[in-house]
Here is the input.
Amino acid sequence: MIRINLLPVKEITAEVGRRQDLLVAGLSVSMTAALVVGLYMFQSYRLFSLGSEASGLKKEIETLNVQLKEVGDLQQKVQALEQKIKVIDDLTKKKVGPVKIMESLSLATPARLWLTEFRESGGNLTLGGLAVDNQTVADFLKSLATSAYFANVDLVETTQVEQEGVPLKKFSIRSQLLYQAALPPASPQKPAAPPAPAKGSK
Here is the structure.
């Protein structure tokens, strides 16, 4: 008679359960490892992308800094040029101004008035002189006030004096000199004349 050694059903079921548990555990470990590797690769790619972006931004900042420096240098050159133009303009006005001012002063001086003092400091002018009467002094003040080279004309004082027995008015006047009026304004250009009509045209 043949004897067959059969395992009990409970032991077989337990063995199958253990194998399934091992399989599930192995799959879990594999999936976890795959997930970790995937996250690592994603983070590495992300870091690489951020590094490239940061490098690009750094280059852009360096380029902008160079451009800003160029703009700053250009502004300094423009300011220096404007300052030179202003200096040249002031020198031109002060070169031409005194001649025009003296000419205007001569034209404004009445026949019966004589200047004995002319002092200028920082654009402020002090005039002194003698006149035959107050009306002559008033006419002189009016002429100075209407000149383009004098501003804020003010009579400081008048006193009665005698010169060789002749009664005269001694006066003192203050004013501001306007050197900018020394340069004449540019004359406007006249429009060109229309062309003459051709002969025979109506």
